[in-house]
Each structure stands twice: as structure tokens, then as C-alpha cells.
Amino acid sequence: MIFQIRKDERKIFEVIxxxxxxxxxxxxxxxxxxxxxxxxxxxKDLDIVCVGSGIDLARRVGDCLHPRSRVTVYKRFGTAAxxxxxxxxxxxxARKESYRSDSRKPTVESGTLADDQNRRDFTINALAISxxxxxxxxxxxxxxxxxxxxxxxxxxxxxxxxxFSDDPLRMMRAIRFATQLGFTIDPATFRxxxxxxxxxxxxxxxxxxxxxxxxxxxxRPSIGLRLLDKSGLLDYVLPxxxxxxxxxxxxxxxHKDNFIHTxxxxxxxxxxxxxxxxxxxxxxxxxxxxxxKRWEAEAGWTFHAHDAVGERMVPKVFRRLRLPNDKLKxxxxxxxxxxxxxxxxxxxxxDSAVRRILFDAGDDxxxxxxxxxxxxxxxxxxxxxxxxxxxxGLRQRMSEIEEKxxxxxxxxxxxxxxxxxxxxxxxxxxxxxxxxxxxxxxxxGAIPNEYSAAYERMxxxxxxxxxSPQKS
Length: 472
Ligand code: CTP
What we know:
Bound molecules: cytidine-5'-triphosphate
Number of helices: 24
Number of domains: 4
CATH superfamily of the largest domain: Beta Polymerase, domain 2
Strand content: 5-15%
């Protein structure tokens, strides 16, 4: 089959083809670029394999481009890269690799195009397009990758046990591609993931997290989360989530499967937001449920304080997966607060309760509400409608109170410095007590959120502590 080269590709492909001919290196476009182009997905990383030196070819291509392109050489890997328009182009010599069982570091020898295709992860990633004169544009497809693209199938080119033990990260990649592309994993390939799951332990957490994040950013992350579960990889990668799996029944009363529920919440959220960290908050919102599950004769199954317990579990997940520290507090906050809005829709609530959630959530109040809306997974459309209307009502009320009281990102009108100065006291417990007293009065609605009322209240709280203002 001949690949339909697009207008914008014509020039760069021809330049590479000509440079390759000058050097007498058979040269091909390979891997993800070919796959994504055939699937009509955007692709910015162009990988070029040649039978010869990738570094020499890159230099030659760099010289032939107008304007000339700067080549970055990675000597240690024998690769070189250059930028052309919005493409990142990487050049590498075709290789044969063999791996040792205790490491992912391969020993590398040069090889033919066929050797290079053999060592790739999936048939759909092993397609090559020739840039050579005699068969320019021909797709070279030794493993029927085109058929698998058509059938939407992830399958390894070699016996799957070999492909996965060569590089166990590929188990995560299989699941990630299935999620991103909506493909199914071939049964023998999937069985092999289950059999080799322990080998994932030799992969660094950073690389595992990169794949997890790609799963989380897909339009339906639940596909990947459930495959991770089914293959057994979840027990190693996110045991806190694996612990949510299952349903228990007592006296005919069942609780829901909190793992399945979580995957639905993540999908619901993915429909509302592309924010990776809000999606992580959805993934982790119920992780406290396994530890807090109790059977109570009257109430049935309960998960008291699972929000607070979950909040305390988040740092360990972040540390293990090397997730960024500056996102930790945000995810923790949403996990901690995710039950609050529900309680605000259930009863006749006071302005003060609404003020408190505005104060506690600060700038993240909209994200919190989005999480809560996504947390509705009832199959009963009437209930879903009612719950969503309740949240709409709450949002309305929040915006009225916010307009009146300006509590979002609230800065206390009375600072610690002012308290110390007014009463001539050093930093101490009393300073905190006075600040808390003023804040509580504002949140309770006992005084308005403004300086003079807060100053008066400060004097009252201080008097209770036997403090009076210093004469100046
Ligand atoms: N590859 C592999 N095994 C891996 C990683 C990569 O065989 N563990 C091969 C595949 O042929 C892949 C190519 O190297 O297509 C390029 O890898 P990479 O850029 O990581 O992935 P892409 O397939 O391009 O997909 P994405 O850009 O979505 O990560």
C-alpha cells in the first residue's frame, strides 16, 4: 500500500529522502507518526530510522533545509534531532536489541529495518513508510499492522511474553493506547500482561506515572482504569484504588462497588473538564472508603470520615508516583471537601454554612462543584436530574452570597501584626485566638466582612482574654 503523503509533508520527506540517497542509507518514517497519520490523529513527533548512522543523516538533512536547521546530537543514544516548522524530527540508526531479564537497559547493535520493526511494541507501532527512490511512499508492514489498525486491535508483533519482558512498560502502554484510541487488546496479548504483571516493578515510577497521566487525559479514562484492574497491574500501581473493588452484602443490603463508581466519576468529570489534576481528584476522592467501611445495624454500610481519611492518604500516592508537589494541596483539598456541597443541598441551610464552604474552597470552589456534579452516578435519570438541580440551586446561592460578602480568597481584615501592635503582645496563642474569633464572627454572619466591624470585634474578643489596647 502507498501512503498518501500530505502537501505539508512533501518537502521534508523529499529532503530526508535525498539526503539518505546521498549517504546511501535506506531510510524510513516509523512508529507513532505513521500510526497517528493513518488514524487521522495530530502528530508532531516524526521518527526516522535509517540503515546507517542516524547522526550523520540528521546533520545532512539539517544542512539541506532552508533555513539550515540546528541539529542536537545525543551521542550516548546514537540519535540526533532537529526541529522543522512544528515537527520534532528524530533520527536513529536501525537496531537490533536484546534485553537482560533484570533491567530494561538493552544492549544495542545495528541492524536492518526488519530488525528494528521486530523490536517494537505493537503491530500498529511497527509500520514504516519508505523514503527511498525505488519504493518511495510504500508502507512496509511485516506484522499486518494495517489490518490491526482497521480492526482497532492492540497486539504485539512477537510472542507477547517476549515483547513485554523486553520492556515491561509496554504493558502500561498497551492499556494506554487501548484507552486513547478506543482499541481492544488482543486476548493473547492481554493474558500475557496478566502473567507478566510483576515485571512492572523494574520500571521507574516516573515512567509509570507518564502512562497513567495519559490514561487520565483520555476522553474515557475508565477504559484504562478497568483494564489496569482486570490485568492485576492496579494492585501494584494504585493499590488504594484496588482496595475499593467489590461489593459486600449483609442482611440483603449491599453497598456499591466503589472502584466501579470511581471510574464512572472520572469519566463524568472528563466530559466536563480537561484538567489533569481535577481528574486526579476525581480518581482519589473516595480512597478513604476502604479503611472507613463499617456495618452499622441501623444505618447499614457507612464510610464515616472517608473524606478526611482520603485527604491524609493522598500524599503517599503522590510521593509514590512522583506526582508534582505543587498539585498535592489542590488534590487533597478537593478530596477533603467533596462531601460538603452534598450536605448543603440536603437540608434548610444557613448563609453561614454557604459562607464557610466559600471560605474553605477559595478559588477552587468551581472545581469542587464540578467534582460533586460528576460524583452523581445514579442510573435513575429522575434522581440525576434532581441532584443536578439541587447543585444548580446551591451554585446560585453561592454566587448571591459571594456577591454580598466577597469571601472567595478572603483576606482577614484584621492581621496578626495589627493584633500584636494594638495589644502590645508578642507572637502567641492569643494572637491566633483573636484572629479566629474575628473570622468566626464574619463567617457566622454576626458582623459584616469589613474593617471597622472586625476591629470592634477584635476588641471584644481580646477583652475576654483580659487584653486591652496599648495607649499610644
Ligand atoms: N516503542 C516501543 N516500546 C516502548 C516505547 C516505544 O517499542 N516502550 C516504539 C514504538 O514503535 C513507538 C515508538 O517507539 O511507536 C515511539 O515511541 P514513543 O514516542 O514513546 O510513543 P508513540 O508510539 O509515538 O506514542 P505517543 O507519542 O503517544 O507516546
